[in-house]
């Protein structure tokens, strides 16, 4: 017997419709590439998204066509999020920090029909224009006054002309919620980037889950600033969450340095911001140097890479900003776990709380997880035993776009498909998962595993260290031993011996790195993660040579 409730497809367009109808005068504030601050409302955004949809129809865009973007976090990008997906086409956000060859590959592989771009990325667009076989025109996301005169791009259109040239008279079509809405490629540190194609249904379910109190805890009383880019896994879903709950949105555009972020956080009275640890380190340095404090920020979600305990402590104990540590992946839309406390954690000392919060957190409803040993058997949730982390759920990838990337799923004895994340983790009795490493970064010393993340956390809590990366270096006796690459803070003094002595009593003696190499910087990838494969190439023979 079927239930007797109304049928309504879960569609992206319903989010902006809701935001317009129920939170129409709530603001969206953006720092623009043109240099100024732009502000308008959800109602304005909805009107312009419908103009975008009409413009796309006039350009001949049909359902399921992929439309690329190379753009910062801003209101025009938001209009495209809703205009493109809402009319039934597929929003394809491209990460401009990828190598130009990868960008050309991705646009070609996705068969993008049009590419919208912020002016910052004009040189990139010039570099790929001749290499993308399917792109019919490039649209600069600016007005006529700022449009470059001699761009050298034959088929260049102006966003404002295009949008304002069309009527807002448009009714969002109704279609199957399993229809694709967004395409994101993984960053492809090894091999070609792989396309993950989200559906309207998976994105809506992810939005509900992300907004919940024990997830990102968002409401109409929030002012949300996503530092995490809209070109990387939909800014962790925040442009959707804000519409669902009616929160004010603040977009930082290209201003991601500590000072620009701080100015915007304060001017717009932001309550909640989201970003990767490296961005927050820049902001915290700016606060420290200027003796500044936050007047409105209450909490922040940190993910994408492990949050160093030093960052957690500074935010919470130094500035009264609650830290939510989250874990996810492009293949998970991206949210998997969030480190929200349980009632039993209330009476804990700050140190005990920090230890819980340093873990990547509990599964949000919708995501199930398990850890497996080398023999494929499920491992206990004791907080100590580590193994391969697998997940499943309605917003987890089933297949990569055009099947390029192999079959991602592992089928268990009950014929259920599980996605192997490539991460190594423990899970404790409360269900808190902790990433100890990516499987390709783990250090295998004499057959035993050493967690590079744990070593990095200790090193980066030394007062003289700005950041640290620990890699497996070849060793004649133990096969691999940890080698620590460290970046000193400006003007700070510390020797390798002093830094190694700092590990005493903090981890097992045999986990202590064999050597320290001070470097000026560590290489970061397109999503803010340390490129350990590059470091390994450069330093893997270091211990053999010394
Ligand atoms: P990529 O495109 O580089 O794969 P993703 O953002 O999808 O980018 O990366 C997902 C990976 O990032 C995870 O598998 C995990 O290794 C790492 N990661 C994400 N969040 C965290 C976190 N909070 N702590 C540790 N690692 C994390």
TrEMBL record:
Enzyme type, top EC level: ligase
Keyword Endoplasmic reticulum: no
Annotated EC: 6.2.1.44
AMP-binding enzyme C-terminal domain boundaries: 454-529
Record's keyword terms, sorted: Fatty acid metabolism, Ligase, Lipid metabolism
UniProt-listed InterPro entries: AMP-bd_C, AMP-bd_C_sf, AMP-binding_CS, AMP-dep_synth/lig_dom, ANL_N_sf
Chain ranges of the AMP-dependent synthetase/ligase domain: 17-401
One GO biological process term: fatty acid metabolic process
SUPFAM superfamilies: Acetyl-CoA synthetase-like (SSF56801)
Single annotated GO MF: ligase activity
Keyword Secreted tagged: no
Top-level taxon of origin: Bacteria
A family per Pfam: AMP-binding_C
Assigned protein family: Belongs to the ATP-dependent AMP-binding enzyme family.
PANTHER family registered for this protein in UniProt: ACYL-ACTIVATING ENZYME, BUTANOATE--COA LIGASE AAE1-RELATED
Protein name: 3-methylmercaptopropionyl-CoA ligase
Source organism of the structure: Paraburkholderia domus
Lineage of origin: Bacteria, Pseudomonadati, Pseudomonadota, Betaproteobacteria, Burkholderiales
Gene: dmdB_3
